[in-house]
Amino acid sequence: MRLHMWPIRLCLRCSYATAAANSTPSASTLLLKLRSDLKVAMKVKDINRLDVLRALLAEITNASKTSSPIKTDLQLLSLLRKRAAASRTAAREFSAANRTDLKDKEDAQVAVLEGYAGEVDTIGEEETTRVVGEVIGKMRNDEKKVDLGSVLEALVGPGGEFDGKPVEKAEVAKIVRGML
User: Fold this and answer.
1) What's the rounded Cα separation, in Å, for the pair 107 and 85?
2) φ/ψ of residue 18, rounded to 5
3) Contacts of 60 (CB under 8 A, 6+ apart)
4) pTM higher than 0.85, yes or no?
5) For the chain, where are the alpha helices, taking DSSP H only?
6) Distance (Å, whole) CA 155 – CA 132
7) What is the pLDDT of residues 2-16, one digit of tens each?
8) How far, in Å, CA of 176 to CA of 163, rounded?
């Protein structure tokens, strides 16, 4: 009886491992590209790109263990821009300290990060401005309260104009502040 159950357990274990390895539909396309580019950077021995990709993937892995994991390209874009801003700040500090070698390294990292950030498709600023103007006009016509919170809720909240669309909330908030 035990011999008969052993192959079944092995089969279930293997099928689970195979299913777990193949079930990444929730992974963003940019995340998949980062992982494949990591392998390419290892083969080509591109140290700068390799360092950037390892740091990004480590940060994504750490975020996956928190309450807000990085699942979409927009969340990844936010992380890329945050890392690029930190590298720019470090480059300015290195420049002020007369450390051109470290400044050049940070500038190269910014170039890699901006290259990946440019691959994320988002709604353009003109389209966002147009939709924000329409929503504000509609809210004023309906005599609703027109403040930052209510306009943002009408735009990016559930059922809003930008709900589920690739738009950065910070960009929308900046445009709304400018129009109010």
Assistant:
1) 11
2) -70, -45
3) 31, 34, 70, 76, 79
4) no
5) 2-22, 29-44, 47-64, 73-96, 100-117, 125-141, 148-156, 169-179
6) 7
7) 555 445 444 444 444
8) 16
